[in-house]
Amino acid sequence: MNVIEIDNLTKVYPDGTRANDGISINVKRNEIVGLIGPNGAGKTTLIRQLLGLLKPTKGSIRVMGEDIAENPDVIKRTLAYVPQYPLSFPSLRVEEVLEYVFRMRYGNAPREETEKKISEVLSLVGLDGASKFFGYQLSGGMKKSLLLAMALVQELPVLVLDEPTSMVDIVTKHRLWEAIMNSNREGILLASHDMNEVKALCDRVYLLVHGKIVASGTPADIVSMIKMPTEVRLIPQREIPSSILPKEHRKRGNLYELAFDTLEKALETVEAINRSVGVSYLEIESPSFENLVINLIGRDGE
Prior knowledge:
By secondary structure, the chain is an alpha/beta fold. It has 10 helices and 14 strands. It is globular.
C-alpha cells in the first residue's frame, strides 16, 4: 500500500489557469519523496489539494489507502503538515505551544506522558534548551524548528513538508534534516527549492514544471537524464600517452585541460591516467545537482 497516492490530479482555476495537469505521484511506505520545481510550477496547489483545502478538478488522492474525497477525516487522522512560513505565538512558551498541539490531538493525556513526548521532540529538533522561551524570543531558525516539532509531537504516520528548512542557517538546516530522517514516519512528501536538501533526504524525486511532472526518479536518476560537460585540469607525474587522452584536450606547460560529455567519462579517464602515469594535481568542474535540475527545467519548460 502506498502511503500517499495521487492519480491523474488536475486543478483548473476559474480563470482557466491549469495549475496541475494530470499529476500522478506516490509515496511508498518508509519513503521520503521530493517535489521540486520553479515558482509557479504548481507545488502549492498540489499540497493544498492533498490537505483537503482545495477540491481537484479531476483525479483522486488517497492517504493511507483511503480516498480523501470519500473520507476527508483521514487527513486529520493521519497527516501532519509543516507550512513554509513560520507561525508566530509571541505570548506562549515553546513547551506551551507543543502541549497545546499535543492535547488538541490526544485530549487529556497523562501529564507524565505529555511531558515525555514534548521533551523527546524538543531534543530531536534541537530546541531542548529553548523550552521556556516565549515566541517573541525565537529566532527565525527556532520558529522553523518549532513548526517541525508541532508536526512531530502529533505522532501521525504521514508528514507533508513545505520548504521546511528555508530561511535557516546551515547548522539548523542540518539539524532539521537529521530530525526529519529520524522521525520514523511511514511516509514523507517534501516540497523544496533546496537541491542539496532533496539530494540529502529523498529516496525519489518528482520534477514539476508548468503543472506537469516532467521527470521522476532518484536524485541520481535526474542527474543521469542530462548529459552535461565536465572539465578536468590536471598535472601528471609523467607524460600522458595519447591513447588515454580524449579528443578534446589542451596542454599548457605541465597542465592538461580535458573536456568530456559526462562526469562518468571524466572520472574513468582520470582513473586511467592515475594508473598509468600518476597525478600530482587534479581539479574537476562538474555541474552541481542544482544546475542539472535548472538545465532540465529550462529544457522542458520552454
